[in-house]
Amino acid sequence: EYMGGGERRGEEAMMRPQPLGQFLRWALGHRSDELQTTSYKPVMVAGLGNHMFPGTRHSVGMAVLNHLASKLDVADQWKRDKRCCADMVVARLGEAELLLMKPRKFMNLNGISLASAAEKYNLNIEDIYLVHDDLDKPLGKISLKLGGSARGHNGVRSCISCLRSDRMVRLRIGIGRPTAKASVADYVLSRFTDAEQEVLPPVLERATAMLLQHIQQNRGRRESPGPCDGLASPLPKTEGRGPS
């Protein structure tokens, strides 16, 4: 079950991104399907969701990742990583190496994939970005935030549990709340309406621009607490029962 929290946090980092085309022309370097040797550790951007239910509200984070891969010209290079149980692709943004990830597990088990990747690539916790849906924001509103609680989102909760930290950067994509007659579970697992589909493309564009700008601006300036601890103890069995 997806339980949305009503909590409002004043520390949300709202950003006004540069025009995406202008930013990409300046920042985008070559692409590669393997990590290159750079002076920085890679940055991982993970789109949370249910890979078997693409196009649903709950998987809007994966839609952002698809759009991001297209903008970075690596949309045709996704590969399945069996160790991480995820679809992954590597791109380059200036001096930064980007690992784009779409977990191939249920939403409430997404953290297992992220922890496996964090261990495999020796990632710093604050070099991990989560992109996910947010019930408490209307469709069209996005915000960037560092750390904090899961606020009822089972995918984020899984990531916090498995990574043993809540210090990941999060890009939250508003999907709004259902009407009184619709259950939250049915709502998040349903596809966007025709009217919402018209609003979605500019949302994906702005989300992509915000991500790229934040990554570029923060490379080399962040004091990291160090590598992730890797996979934590197994999640409770109740979290593996469905695509919540």
TrEMBL record:
InterPro entries: Pept_tRNA_hydro, Pept_tRNA_hydro_CS, Pept_tRNA_hydro_sf
MF-aspect GO terms: peptidyl-tRNA hydrolase activity; tRNA binding
Name of protein: peptidyl-tRNA hydrolase
Signal peptide segment: none
PANTHER family registered for this protein in UniProt: PEPTIDYL-TRNA HYDROLASE
Highest taxon listed in the record's lineage: Eukaryota
The keyword Transferase appears for this protein: no
NCBIfam families per the UniProt record, alphabetical: pth
Similarity field: Belongs to the PTH family.
Keywords, alphabetical: Hydrolase, RNA-binding, tRNA-binding
Region (Disordered): 217-244
SUPFAM superfamilies, alphabetized: Peptidyl-tRNA hydrolase-like (SSF53178)
EC main group: hydrolase
Taxonomic source organism: Micrurus spixii
Entry's EC annotation: 3.1.1.29
